[in-house]
Every structure is written in structure tokens, then in C-alpha cells.
Design a protein that fits this description.
This protein has two helices and eight strands, in the order βαββββαβββ. Strands 1-4-3-2 form a four-stranded mixed sheet, with helices on one face. Strands 5-8-7-6 form a four-stranded mixed sheet. A hairpin with a 5-residue loop joins β7 and β8. The two termini are about 30 Å apart. By secondary structure, it is of the alpha/beta class.
Length: about 150
């Protein structure tokens, strides 16, 4: 372990979409997120950059943002994100989310036991995998000191 400075956790995650309006509708109408900022990519003016948050104020740690690149559809590879996870409190909340998504016609996985948490999976309009994951039981389930040894999955 290094003496690296501390962080407050993830601030936001930025992804790429091909259709900002479809992405906005998905986050607002399906996930119930709030569009908290509509702007351009500061490093690539003319490219839309929208911020979606699970809270109306868009506090750090609640935000997912997207750059719109209409011709960008491709195969994820090194340096690309496989998926990101949105946290929920417990199994009841996870079940509520699954029912909510199914009721809106979203193709969502059954609940999966991941040993350290339970999850469901769905995709955004461009196929990016989104996971909803419970807070527990946590990483101490099979490791007294998380990260101290390699643990083979069950």
C-alpha cells in the first residue's frame, strides 16, 4: 500500500453514446434520473456532453455523463468500460428495480448472486451494460482482510 492521497470516491463516469436524445429519454423515463447539465465537451467543442444524476442537484458520486459521437458504434476493447454499477441498498430495492424495469419493457437479467453483492444487468440504448448492485453482504464474506489473498469464485 502506498501513501497516496485520499479520495472521496468516484465523482462521475463518462460514456459515449450515438444518440443523445435516446440516451436522455432512457435515463429520464426509464431510470428516473435527472438531466442536470447539457453542454459541450470542453475538449471537443461541438460534441454534446450531458450529465444525468440520480438526484436533482447532481452531487458528485451520483452522476453519469455521455459524449455524443453518432458514428462511434464499435466493439469495446482495451481502455473501454465493460460496464458500470449503480448501487441499491438491499435485495428488496433490487427486486423493486427489476420489477420497475420489466414493467417498462426493459430486457433485464434475473437477480444474480455475486457472493459479495446481488445484481441485475441491463443495457442502455447503445448496448453499454449497466448493473444494479446491492450494498452487501460485502467483500469480507470470504476474506478477513479484503484484497489480502486471491479468492477463487464458488
Amino acid at each position: 500500500m502506498t501513501d497516496a492521497p485520499t479520495t472521496t470516491g468516484l465523482h462521475h463516469v463518462t460514456n459515449v453514446c450515438t444518440d443523445m436524445e435516446a440516451t436522455r429519454e432512457f435515463y429520464e423515463d426509464v431510470l428516473g434520473f435527472h438531466t442536470v447539465k447539457m453542454t459541450e465537451n470542453y475538449d471537443d467543442p461541438g460534441t454534446l456532453h450531458y450529465y444525468f444524476s440520480s438526484t436533482p442537484a447532481g452531487e458528485p458520486g451520483t452522476v453519469v455523463s455521455y459524449f455524443e459521437y453518432p458514428e462511434s458504434r464499435g466493439v469495446p476493447g482495451p481502455g473501454a468500460s465493460h460496464h458500470f454499477a449503480i448501487g441499491v441498498e438491499d435485495r428488496d430495492a433490487l427486486d423493486d428495480w427489476r420489477n420497475h424495469l420489466v414493467d417498462r419493457g426493459v430486457d433485464v437479467s434475473p437477480v444474480r448472486d455475486r457472493t459479495y453483492f446481488e445484481s441485475i444487468y441491463l443495457t442502455d440504448p447503445d448496448g453499454l451494460v449497466i448493473e444494479f448492485a446491492t450494498a452487501g453482504p460485502g467483500f469480507r464474506v470470504d476474506d478477513e482482510r479484503p484484497g489480502s489473498e486471491f479468492v477463487t469464485p464458488p
